[in-house]
Amino acid sequence: MAGPRVASSGPGPAGISKAPDMIEVTYDESGSTSQAKKRKANREASKKYRQRKSETQHLKDLVRDLRKEIKTLREEKSRCNSERDLLVGRSNGLIPAHTLSSQPHSPPAKLSST
């Protein structure tokens, strides 16, 4: 970082004289450089915060959607169980018990063509 610069009314660079009516001015670049670094760091921190916030919101939305899907699937399972119980109840009166297998038949295995 550069320190303060001073312009004076004495001889300037390469022996060039300044006018005697010039005012001495101190120019400090270190303050503006320091603030620029702070602004840059703050911009980067804000960017990271917004990114994390966006990711967090995305995950919250995903959790909400998955919970909704779980609820829907549980309701569907409940309806299927009720329908099964109804059908089993009806079949108990129509089909003699000894003709029913104790477990449903397994679906045929699919043969892979590799």
UniProtKB/TrEMBL annotation:
InterPro entries: bZIP. PROSITE patterns: BZIP_BASIC. Pfam families: bZIP_2 (PF07716). Residues 42-58 have a biased composition (Basic and acidic residues). Residues 37-52 form the BZIP domain. GO terms for molecular function: DNA-binding transcription factor activity. Residues 1-58, 95-114 are annotated as: Disordered. CDD domains: bZIP. This is BZIP domain-containing protein. It comes from Penicillium chermesinum.
